[in-house]
Automatic annotation (TrEMBL), chain A:
GO molecular function: ATP binding; ATP hydrolysis activity; transmembrane transporter activity
Protein name: ABC transporter ATP-binding protein
Family to which this protein belongs: Belongs to the ABC transporter superfamily. Macrolide exporter (TC 3.A.1.122) family.
The UniProt record lists the keyword Cell membrane: no
Organism: Vreelandella andesensis
Record carries keyword Cytoplasm: no
Positions of the ABC transporter domain: 2-221
Alphabetical UniProt keywords: ATP-binding, Nucleotide-binding, Transport
A Gene Ontology cellular-component term: transmembrane transporter complex
Signal sequence range: none
PANTHER family referenced in this protein's UniProt entry, alphabetically: IMPORT ATP-BINDING PROTEIN, TRANSPORTER, PUTATIVE-RELATED
Lineage start: Bacteria, Pseudomonadati, Pseudomonadota, Gammaproteobacteria, Oceanospirillales
Length: 221, 837
């Protein structure tokens, strides 16, 4: 489903060059879930963004569904993102002008894949039922995070890229959300790449990787 | 501690220099336009005050009834009769294109109440003034004509042609471009060329002596009275730009405040008292106010300096009011300008201050309650709009009860109230519209986002949109008024100037000249005109019964203008209203009827068919008003009669003669013959083209300041919009980046802000059109009548309107294009990462 081949990324900052990713290789099959761990600032979000085609790697290739992102033009990449990817950002990036239900279904509607029943189910599972008409700023941090998760799931993506989706949740809600994510992976055979700090959250996933000083190492369990 | 708070507050602008620029631009513009107009007004006032101090307004003037120029014999005759008359010799000099009036006075006989009797107090001894080599008294601002400065001026004797002026003495209270000297000095310089007039102390003679007529000082309106409405117009425009400027300031302050809320909360959490924070904000405002006022004053003075010559020539050609061409500003002007800027800033900043005092240490989320509070704000706007609407209606009712031609201040207030009503209702209206759009576009996610996002931006944009609406509507109003006036005026000029050639000469030349013309074979027609004066004693209106002209009317004399009713003229002469048709009106004029100009009809509430009791040489006589004619550019009331009637019945003299030649006649040869026959100077003969050009020039000058201010105001509003949009460009990018991450292609993203802002500006522009048309109507049909006494037809210029709409649209597009451009240049992913500011 997803393959990173020899991906390198260096940021040029006023303070000098910053090598964040160094020849990373990673493959992720359908229905497979993978946890990405690493200390803060190690480049986890960067890797996720590169995998989503939001950012281009300096070297190497990203292949999604047998298509190399670098061979696609911008509209085609956007279409791929819209149709196949579910993105959960560390900072949520909800749309403040839209209410909960419109936010949740936004990507699905953009991709012409709206499914009312599915959305209602998600709202319910995420504990947001009854808050449909509320606006993002009226939600707590955890509720906003759950909404961001819902938005990614509403499209029924084939690849789900999640950046600390449980970072703002208490243990119990974290477990619920995690269960939901894993259910979905099983149900739709989608692939999940999830960044997390917590070994507890990483445990139920198929594999765990550590990012350290630009290289990726699988953690044996 | 307070210093630390202020410094931290100010540090915000280091990261957001755009906001600082917007704030200062707003303040600067508000204060610049206001202070420039006030500088012009103050300078004019000063000039009027000096003119008032001069003889002409405090003394009555005598002239011969038969129209022949006064001579020294008249003086002797009147003095022999024991009348207290004083001679005045008047001549003029042209130096470097500036016309200087030279007045020769006889201090020994000049009425004592007069400003000139102060001469001896300021200007040295009486002996120096009245004995050779005499003195030339002039105001310091006239010195530049002679290329002299104050140091060199005293005692200098500039040469004029072959002669030299008496030594110069400065006198601050003289009007600009006026030289005052002893009557003997003028005689020595100009001899027979100088014209003699005779003056007496105001009210000294109850009756004019036999064979003379008296022009009373009170009948001559002071320049201040005449030009009042002109200055009021300027002030109104300046006030408008002040308001627009303050809108920008308010928007900038609000934005900066919003973004600094977290900082302020942190301060409060760290133990800084609320009072200190309020005080710090106040200090910050004061600092900006002083910088803004200083910038505004400097550029305002520069602008005033640029505009003043045009204003001065307008005032002198329209009202014969002399205004100096360099600024003269009293101390209270400076104080007033700074006070207005600071006051405006505090007004605009009051909201911010209010928010600072209500600041809560703990606030949930960054703008948790904004949606609720904005809804409340919209409600308040709607209420304020309703109140303004009620005031508008009240003022309109008040105006409709006033007689036509009155209530200039009420009319301007009406325009202001109308503008405010619409401006206040604009954000709620836009909000409702966007709400509706959001519903309609539910099925189209991008469309829905477009409307919803716009609604979210509205709180920040609404002030700029209000400013834009006001500026667009006013711009439309003023430009249609000016454009309409231009068309009407030029057409009217064409109609009035029927003859191709005109002679302006003294009555003594014109009498034989008219005789001579009739015997010339080349002449097809002569169109003599005459000028005179009468007094309006009573009015018999068809509507009411006979009523006496009121007190002031009895005092004031009315100008009478005589024309000849030949077809060349009557077929073209424009009439506004007649009693029973145009041909009958002209027939009536040849008999016992008069025409009146629109100014008089408005001021006296007269209609065709009414009659007026006029003082004539044969006693009081009733005349019927047969028609009303337009008389643009004339500040005074006027009656129109035939030349014959005027010469027989009123005190008057020939004024000019228009000549129509046969088509095959040699015009140049004829002019030559005419000049040599009567020894005419070249400038007595003017052709129609020259008059038209001169009149058009006057017209253009009259409105150059209006147009300049108007254009500037629109520019300022555009700037306000641009600044506001740029200030939130960063935030826009984050919104767009989110959509991009969700799979909206960049090309689509680029279009979204263009549609949003272009659409909003277009809607505002479209709303401005009916408002602008209403304002045009108020300007031409109400304010113009009140200010100048004439009404203009309502004319609209679709091209101007289109240009106006396009301006608004392109500013919005330009501003919208910037975030888009940024989106293209930097990776949207970088934008996604930026922390919310
Ligand atoms: N656009 C950018 N320009 C320069 N440096 C960047 C940029 N984006 C990220 N970095 C740097 O790259 C490194 C990796 O950033 P990244 O956001 O991927 O870290 P992370 O592993 O997700 O950290 P965290 O766990 O705190 O979210 C950081 O040191 C960050 O400062
Ligand atoms: Mg991260």
């Amino acid at each position: 489903m997803l393959a990173l081949q020899q991906v390198s990324k260096t940021f040029t900052t006023p303070q000098g060059q910053l090598l964040v990713l160094n020849e990373i290789n990673l493959t992720l099959a359908r229905g497979e879930s993978l946890a990405l761990m690493g200390e803060s600032g190690s480049g986890k979000s960067t890797l996720l963004h590169i995998a989503a085609g939001l950012e281009a790697p300096d070297l190497g290739h990203v292949v999604i569904d047998e298509q190399s992102l670098s061979s696609l033009n911008e509209p085609a990449r956007a279409k791929l993102r819209r149709q196949q990817l579910g993105l959960i950002f560390q900072q949520f990036h909800l749309v403040p002008s839209l209410n909960v239900i419109d936010n949740l279904t936004l990507q699905a509607r953009l991709a012409h894949k709206e499914d009312g029943e599915w959305s209602a189910y998600l709202l319910d599972r995420l504990g947001l039922a009854g808050r449909e008409r509320h606006y993002p700023e009226q939600l707590s941090g955890g509720q906003q995070q759950r909404l961001a998760i819902g938005r990614a799931l509403a499209v029924r993506p084939s690849l789900l890229l999640a950046d600390e989706p449980t970072g703002n949740l208490d243990e119990q809600s974290a477990d619920t959300v995690l269960a939901l994510l894993l259910d979905l992976v099983k149900e739709t055979q989608c692939a999940l790449l999830m960044v997390t700090h917590s070994a507890r959250v990483a445990a139920p996933l198929d594999r765990t990787f550590h990012l350290h000083l630009g290289s990726l190492k699988e953690t044996k369990r | 501690m307070i210093l630390r708070v202020v410094l931290t507050l100010l540090s915000h602008y280091r990261r957001h220099p755009g906001q600082l620029a917007m704030l200062l631009v707003g303040l600067w513009v508000a204060s610049a336009l206001w202070s420039s107009v006030q500088a012009i007004n103050a300078t004019a006032k000063e000039s009027y005050a000096r003119a008032n101090a001069l003889f002409s307004l405090e003394t009555d003037q005598l002239a011969r009834s038969d129209g022949i120029a006064l001579s020294i014999d008249d003086y002797f005759l009147l003095r022999q009769a024991g009348l207290p008359v004083s001679p005045l010799l008047e001549s003029s000099l042209t130096i470097e294109n500036t016309r200087l009036t030279v007045l020769g006075i006889d201090l020994l006989t000049l009425p004592a109440s007069n400003g000139n009797s102060r001469t001896t107090a300021n200007g040295g001894s009486l002996t120096e003034f009245i004995s050779p080599p005499w003195q030339t008294q002039l105001s310091p601002d006239t010195l530049q004509v002679f290329r002299l400065d104050r140091q060199q001026a005293l005692g200098a004797t500039p040469s004029i042609g072959e002669q030299r002026l008496p030594p110069l003495t400065l006198r601050n209270d003289l009007p600009p471009n006026t030289l005052v000297m002893d009557i003997a000095a003028v005689w020595a310089l100009f001899g027979e060329q100088a014209t003699l007039s005779l003056v007496t102390a105001s009210g000294a003679l109850s009756q004019p002596p036999e064979g003379y007529r008296l022009t009373r000082a009170t009948s001559l309106a002071s320049p201040e009275q005449l030009t009042d409405s002109f200055h009021l117009n300027l002030t109104a425009l300046a006030l408008l730009s002040l308001v627009v400027g303050l809108f920008i300031v308010q928007a900038a302050l609000g934005l900066a405040m919003e973004q600094r809320m977290t900082t302020l909360r942190t301060f409060r959490a760290l133990g800084v008292p609320g009072k200190t924070i309020t005080l710090a904000i106040l200090l910050e405002l004061l600092l900006f106010g002083l910088i803004g006022a200083a910038l505004g004053l400097i550029s305002g003075l520069w602008l005033a300096g640029k505009l003043l010559p045009d204003v001065a020539s307008t005032l002198s050609s329209l009202y014969q009011a002399d205004v100096q061409r360099s600024l003269a500003l009293p101390w209270h002007y400076w104080l007033g300008s700074v006070a207005i800027t600071l006051g405006g800033l505090l007004l605009a900043g009051s909201g911010v201050l209010w928010r600072a005092t209500k600041l809560q240490v703990l606030a949930l989320g960054q703008s948790y309650a904004w949606r609720f509070s904005y809804q409340r704000q919209l409600m308040r706007m709607l209420q304020a709009g309703g109140l303004a609407g009620a005031i508008t209606l009240g003022l309109a009712t008040c105006l409709s009860l006033l007689p036509a031609g009155e209530g200039l201040v009420v009319s301007f207030s009406l325009v202001a109230a109308l503008l405010f009503t619409c401006a206040l209702c604009l954000p709620p209206a836009l909000n409702a519209l966007l709400q509706l759009l959001q519903r309609l576009l539910r099925r189209r996610p991008l469309g829905q986002w477009l409307a919803a996002d716009m609604q979210l931006q509205l709180p920040r944009l609404s002030l700029a949109m209000m400013a834009l609406l006001i500026a667009l509507a006013t711009n439309l109003g003023v430009s249609s008024m000016v454009g309409g006036f231009r068309l009407t005026f030029l057409e009217w000029l064409d109609q009035r100037l029927a003859a191709p050639l005109y002679i302006n000469a003294t009555p003594s030349t014109l009498t034989p000249l008219n005789e001579w013309l009739t015997s010339q074979p080349e002449v097809l027609e002569t169109l003599p005109t005459a000028r005179g004066n009468t007094r309006l004693l009573a009015i018999n209106s068809a509507m009411e019964n006979e009523r006496n002209a009121n007190e002031s009317a009895l005092l004031s004399s009315i100008a009478v203008f005589g024309i000849s009713t030949v077809p060349t003229l009557t077929s073209q002469w424009p009439l506004l209203e007649t009693f029973d048709g145009i041909p009958r009106a002209w027939e009536a004029l040849a008999q016992q009827s008069v025409f009146i100009n629109e100014q008089m009809a408005v001021a006296r509430a007269l209609q065709p068919g009414d009659s007026v009791l006029l003082e004539t040489l044969q006693g009081a006589v009733w005349f019927t008003v047969a028609a009303i004619y337009p008389d643009y550019g004339n500040p005074q009331q006027q009656l129109l009669v035939t030349v014959d009637t005027l010469m027989q019945r009123f005190e008057g003299e020939l004024a000019s003669t228009g000549i129509v030649l046969h088509s095959e006649a040699d015009t140049d040869a004829f002019r030559q013959a005419l000049s040599t026959e009567f020894d005419l100077s070249p400038d007595t003969l003017v052709n129609q083209q020259e008059i038209k050009e001169a009149a058009t020039q006057i017209f253009e000058r009259t409105f150059s300041i209006t147009r300049a201010l108007n254009g500037l105001t629109l520019g300022v509003a555009a700037l306000a919009l641009l600044a506001t949009l740029l200030a939130q460009a960063q935030q826009r990018q984050r919104q767009l980046a989110t959509l991009w991450a969700l799979g909206v292609p960049r090309a689509t993203l680029a279009l979204l802000p263009l549609i949003q802002l272009g659409g909003l500006a277009l809607i505002t522009g479209l709303l401005a059109i009916p408002l602008g048309i209403t304002i045009t109507w108020l300007l031409v049909a109400v304010i113009n009548v009140a200010a100048f006494g004439w009404r203009l037809p309502l004319q609209l210029f679709p091209l101007d309107i289109a240009v106006m709409l396009l301006t608004a649209f392109s500013v919005a597009l330009f501003a919208a294009a910037l975030p888009t451009l940024q989106l293209w240049r930097t990776s949207p992913r970088a934008l996604l990462n930026e922390e919310t500011q």
